[in-house]
Amino acid sequence: AQTVTQSQPEMSVQEAETVTLSCTYDTSESNYYLFWYKQPPSRQMILVIRQEAYKQQNATENRFSVNFQKAAKSFSLKISDSQLGDTAMYFCAFMGGGSNYKLTFGKGTLLTVNP
Amino acid sequence: DAGVIQSPRHEVTEMGQEVTLRCKPISGHDYLFWYRQTMMRGLELLIYFNNNVPIDDSGMPEDRFSAKMPNASFSTLKIQPSEPRDSAVYFCASSLVLGDTEAFFGQGTRLTVV
Question: pLDDT (tens digit, 9 = 90+) per residue, A6-55?
């Protein structure tokens, strides 16, 4: 069974600084997808960034980038130039490929951006 | 498309009552997921469907929970009888696996059982 582990329950960062959120996962599959979702106080789940396991290049979306280490089963999220609006819960998620597209989430990291 | 639509947004019910949560996925999506979110357990996958067929219901906590997907545009999650420990936010999400694989979430239903 796939498991997703986020070892940092809470983090804080100063506005305009850079922060990295950690995520590790466990799977025996070779083809899969990884995601970071953001959940602000409104509770809406918003996709931040997506990575396909077969792509070696790390995904980037504006101020958000990932460090995908397939051999180490690590998938960290870097937020550059942090903004107050980045304050939210961040969830790492794994979706299997092949015939099993089960989507499993980590427990989340509460990120607070301080002015 | 209006996105994934869940109803109701909020539900308050008394212990022992039946509760039905509803979800309309994005048109054309072939996967549908039901999650429960609590402070203690985070986001738990309860059950998911592929083309209206339940694939994995191992996350359903007990027999009081049941889920159906009678057609591609509608799914329900039912709790009967409800208990206070069922209080949580319930999310529905849908995905189109072939293409830009991404799960789109509804706004969630906050269930309170008193």
Answer: 999 999 999 999 999 999 999 988 889 999 999 999 999 999 999 999 88
C-beta atoms of A91 and B43 within 8 A = yes
Judge: A95–B103 Cβ closer than 8 Å, yes or no.
yes
Which two tokens mark B82? 């409800």
Instruction: Residue B31: list chain A partners with CB under 8 A.
Output: 101
- Those residues whose C-beta lies under 8 Å from the C-beta of residue B33, and which sit 6 or more positions away, are A103, B45, B47, B48, B49, B91, B92, B93, B94, B95, B103
B16 burial type by CB count under 10 A (0-12 exposed, 13-18 middle, 19+ buried): exposed
Per-residue pLDDT band for A75 (boundaries 50, 70, 90) equals very high
Q: A36 with B103: CB under 8 angstroms? A: no
| CB–CB contact A47 B33 (8 Å) | no
Residue A107 with chain B: CB contacts under 8 Å:
42
Taking only Cα atoms into account, the Rg of chain A, rounded to an integer number of angstroms, comes to: 14
Chain A residues with CB under 8 Å of B5 CB are: none
Residue A63 CB: number of other CB atoms within 10 A? 14
Looking at residue A56, its pLDDT comes to 85
Strand partners of residue A95:
A33, A103
